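Technical note accompanying the year-one report. For the benefit of new consortium partners, we illustrate the data format agreed upon in the data management plan: each record pairs a sequence with a structure-token string. No post-processing was applied to the example shown here.
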Amino acid sequence: MNSEQELLDGAALTVYRLNGQFLTIGDGLSSPAGISVAWWQVMAAVQDQPQPVAGIARAMGVTRQSVQRIADLLVGKGMCEYRPNPAHKRAKLVAMTEEGEAAIRRIDPQHAAMAHRLAEALGPAEFAATVATLERLAATLDTIIADEDQL
């Protein structure tokens, strides 16, 4: 195995580990509000603006079907609602309800505390640089995947 392969493996294993760590933290933050971390992720995607299921899935890097299942559960629990989509008749928009916003507000103080702890441990500049590097890595992988789909 060459050093580039080792770097790819190291990046992938680190991201998998980070994913597990973020899920553990997310579960700890979201469970007192009565929601799962998966529900929280979908709700966060529509917190500022209603989105179609496919758009949420793209942003999260997961399948449309998994987001649809969660959106249906959130609508059933009254935390989100489906609204008409002026851009597409069949693809309704997922929007947050007052009940969903209240759940997110219950999470916010502990979320802010965790963000502060992480920023304090890394330092604000390194924290920002880390996020920028991860975003660049994700964008680069998107480009590579799209290029391979074109082949």
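Partners are asked to follow this layout when depositing records. The mean pLDDT is 94.
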